[in-house]
Amino acid sequence: MDKNYKKYVDEISPKPTYAKNYILAFIVGGIICMIGKGINDVYMNFFDLEKLSAAAATTITLIFIGSFLTGLGVYDLLGKRAGAGSIIPITGFANSIVSPAMEYKREGYVLGVGANLFKIAGPVLVYGIGSSILFGFIYYIYKLFV
To answer: How many domains are contained in the chain?
Structure first.
């Protein structure tokens, strides 16, 4: 009976359109990156920021835009259509931080928003920072003996 049920589920489940998903992810991810490059160029050409300062300002701006669009519910709609194209750029990171916080905002700012702000992105940050410390320590030891 278990095999029959699996066969039945496979028959009635909608088949994903892989080619369409790949193309949409590529286009949307590319558009987000083009917007980021445009913002970077504005900071460099109109605000006379150096390359590193413009990159930092661009990152901050993209995080703000991603968070703001998540708050309005627009970024989630984009994610449903574009899939991976919306989660790869830094705006996807902003979305992964803001979404859980918004889900629990009714529980208050401390126990709701504050406690759930890094629910999804937290482990990524912990392991990223932890591995950078580990590799930095290994590099430091290596430089002592070479």
So the answer is: 1
